[in-house]
Amino acid sequence: MINSNVAELLKSEGLLLQEVTLKGWVRTFRSNRFIALNDGTTINNIQCVIDFENTDETTLKRITTGAALCIKGTLAASQGKGQSVEIQVSEIEILGDSNPDEYPIQPKKHSFEFLRENAHLRVRTNTFSAVMRVRSKLSFAVHQYFQERDFNYVNTPIVTSSDAEGAGEIFKVTTFKDNEAPLNEDGKIDHSKDFFGKETNLTVSGQLEAETFAMALGKAYTFGPTFRAENSNTTRHLAEFWMIEPEVAFMDLDGNMDLAEDFIKYVINYVLDKCADDLAFLDQRLTQEEKSKPQAQRSEMSLLDKLKFVVDNNFKRVSYTEAIDILRNSKPNKKKKFQFPINEWGADLQSEHERFLVEKHFKCPVILFDYPADIKAFYMRLNDDGKTVRAMDVLFPGIGEIVGGSQREERYDVLADKMKTLGIEEELWWYLDLRKFGTAVHSGFGLGFERLVQFTTGMSNIRDVIPFPRTPQNADF
Question: What sequence ranges are listed for the domain Aminoacyl-transfer RNA synthetases class-II family profile (predicted)?
Answer without folding.
Answer: 132-467
